[in-house]
Amino acid sequence: MGRHGIIENHSSIDVNELNRLGAFGRATIAYPYVGLRLPSLSIMRTNYSAIEVQFAKDKRWQSITIRWTRCHFGGQRPWLECPCGRRTGKLYDSGFCFGCRQCLNLIYESQRRGANVRRYLRLLKLRARCGGSSSITEPFPSRPARMCEKTYLQLRSRAALLEMELRRSRRFMKKARNYALRATAKAIHRPSSHHINLTACYRLHERIEARALLAPLGP
Ligand SMILES: [Zn+2]
Fold first, then answer.
1. Neighbours of 211 (CB within 10 A)
2. Please, are residues 140 and 127 in contact by the beta-carbon 8 Å criterion?
3. What's the gap in Å between 182 CA and the centre of ligand 1?
4. Are 1 and 54 a contacting pair, CB within 8 Å?
5. How far apart are CA 137 and CA 139, in angstroms?
6. Is-above-0.85 flag for pTM?
7. Which end of the chain is flanked by fewer CB atoms within 10 Å, N or C?
8. Is the distance from CB of 98 to CB of 91 less than 8 angstroms?
9. Are the C-beta atoms of residues 7 and 107 closer than 8 Å to each other?
10. How far is the CA of 89 from the centre of ligand 1 (A)?
11. Ligand 1 centroid, distance to 62 Cα (angstroms)
């Protein structure tokens, strides 16, 4: 998992955005402020058939081929061609070249968290809506006075499904037990205030939990 880069951390060239800006006409267009948007570049030029970029660091050039395909409803749409030959809407900056998601081994932040962590975060949200007892090791909170019965039952059954999935993973449950109570205690017992801010509580919880749960299990 750790070998993957995170897409959100890489700036990218988006072919549809450029197309909307009229980048792919007959005339070649230069972008004087490209460095503001794509910091590793000093020059970018576009026309109908290619995007030429120059890297600021070593003045190297890369030429990105534009491929056009017909749309169902008429007209054409452009694609970027990665050096690997794949056709894609976006190419990402590795600092050394622009490449597709597969070539640069990039994944979305949400994919980095394993399926169980995502389930767990959804579960925390459901619990927070019902009054904030957010640890999976405690029973689901009872219905808050202001919440209607139907909503509560929906939330509870959704949570139950998520919990069922999570409990199937012994490895996950071990982690959850180790960290959940500590994180909850930190988030809720703020000495300066008796008021529990659920949103803040959840956010803090999410951060602590996500980090803790992604850490490898100790020996
Ligand atoms: Zn590629």
1. 11
2. yes
3. 43
4. no
5. 7
6. no
7. C
8. yes
9. yes
10. 11
11. 14
